[in-house]
Amino acid sequence: MKIVIAPDSFKESLSAMQVAQCIENGFKSVFNEAEFVKLPLADGGEGTVDVLLQSVEGQRLVKSVVGPYGAKFLAHWGLLNQGKTAVVEIAAASGLELTNPARRNPGLSTSYGTGELIRHALDSGVDKIILGLGGSATNDGGAGILQALGARLLDSSGTVLPRGGAALELLDSLDLSQIHPRCRDVEFLIACDVKNPLCGPHGASAIFGPQKGATPAQIIELDSALRRFAQVVEQISGHDHCDTPGYGAAGGAPLGLSLVFDVQLLPGIDLILSALNAEDIFSEAQLVITGEGQMDNQTLQGKTPYGVAKLCKQLEIPCIGIAGSLGSEREELSDYFNATFASVRAPGSLRHALQEASENLTQTAANVARTLACGQQLN
């Protein structure tokens, strides 16, 4: 019997590989002769580089880049496919977790460091770049990325604008004469799991600005600044992206990227599954097990377990979800999962649950395996 274990991480407790190992340990205590294939996953957010490097031969690289507020950070990125594909996470260079929550200010934060990683990838000669947008601290429409790639953002007097989303309100023109020459040479895939537009009440500033530190007044200012950026981009590209679905991701980063790359926005988990040739790995499996920290109806909005279950449904393979916890609204999960289980044993503090995550997950996996074995005997 072939069992594929393809989970995401359990946030703040277990990496995707650790989750997969716990589930394998539990199942092996019952099905010790089964063939187990571990396929740790991510959906384009933090951990995407490491997940791909665990499953595909490649190289993890580290570069010193400008962080979201100007301080230098060591940020990682990956090279796959004999150096032909680069994988970059916006969280690694321009991420929310790189700064103290009390100091967050999306009017000042910049995606410049992500642009530096992209520039390094272009310099290395890649012909494809995969960019994960999850976890950004920025609201600059990808302007910082453009600046790192050689663009000059100018006000009406021809003065170069400072970095950050608030400065875009003064944007008058863009000088792309010094943009990196290889931008149009590469395939550019963006792992994007939101459908929010760039501007408006459902846009980048209104929906994601507060978690990045934006005040109500700043939200209005940042939305106006992104709208101004979109107007200048339209003058160059001929495309108005204020209402384009997905362009509100990562503080509007797809907008700036679209100006110099031929970008494709794809659901993150679908992109990762394709990069890992998951359909081939799933073939001939009798069971696939997936999971994440919490599963509920929101899981079906493009998260890792949903992508796995959707592929299993297509291939007619049973799929079980094992989560740290199950949310109160989970009735829609049965449309895609044969069964779902929570691994938290008893009510308690979050800290306690995180500390026991490995033990609880292993024991839950073993109990699920025993249930399956019992079903086989009854049949």
From TrEMBL:
A GO term for molecular function: glycerate kinase activity
Organism whose genome encodes this protein: Alginatibacterium sediminis
Protein name per the record: Glycerate kinase
Keywords: Kinase, Transferase
GO biological process annotation, one example: organic acid phosphorylation
Similarity section: Belongs to the glycerate kinase type-1 family.
InterPro entries per record: Glyc_kinase_flavodox-like_fold (IPR018193), Glycerate_kinase (IPR004381), Glycerate_kinase_RE-like (IPR018197), Glycerate_kinase_sf (IPR036129)
Lineage, highest ranks first: Bacteria, Pseudomonadati, Pseudomonadota, Gammaproteobacteria, Alteromonadales
Superkingdom of this protein's organism: Bacteria
UniProt entry tagged with the keyword ATP-binding: no
Pfam families attached to this UniProt entry: Gly_kinase (PF02595)
